[in-house]
Amino acid sequence: MPVADTTGSLPADKLSGRFQQVAATPQISLSEQLKKLTPSVRSIVQAARRTVKAAAPSATEITSQSHPPRSSSYMWKMVRYAVDGQDVVGIGAFRSHAALVFYRGRELDDGSGLLQGGGKEARFITLRAPADVEQPAVVRMARKAFKLSG
Asked: How far, in Å, CA of 140 to CA of 128, rounded?
């Protein structure tokens, strides 16, 4: 369907066929994205989701609408959790592991030494097995992140 020129620079009959309406991209569900992960990484991401949901049951779960990265060294952003519109924690997947990302990680008191990264704000914890995310220090870090958000 042609789109009319709203600037008024060209008459509508001159625009016919120049523009095409772009079809809306269908939403990719988290369950569909999880199917694309290896079974070992999928189990880590699922364990991370359980931990985050237990830390903040009322947080909004937002599925990232991205595709697996072409490079194995890049993280695939899977899902993030927000409170009052502010991202608090995210979960990303790599080819052989996952990461729990804390968007305000710089502000978290990390006596455990688990937090990695030196960015402006965010920090992350590398997860190589489901048991990694179930460690008491990781569970505490998730709770602290949501307490920090409000």
From this structure: 18
Render pLDDT for 120-135 as a digit per residue (tens, 0 to 9). Answer: 999 999 999 999 999 9
SS3 98: strand
Q: How far apart are CA 81 and CA 88, in angstroms?
A: 6
Asked if 103 and 122 count as a contact pair (C-beta separation under 8 A), the reply is yes
Please count the other Cβ atoms lying within 10 Å of the Cβ belonging to residue 123. 22
pTM of the model: 0.78
Separation CA 116–CA 123 (nearest Å) = 6
Cβ atoms within 10 Å, residue 102: 25
Q: How far apart are the first and last CA of the chain?
A: 47
Residue 30 phi, psi (nearest 5):
-65, -40
**How do beta strands 60-63 and 76-83 pair?**
antiparallel
In angstroms, rounded to a whole number, what is the distance separating the alpha carbons of residues 147 and 144?
A: 5
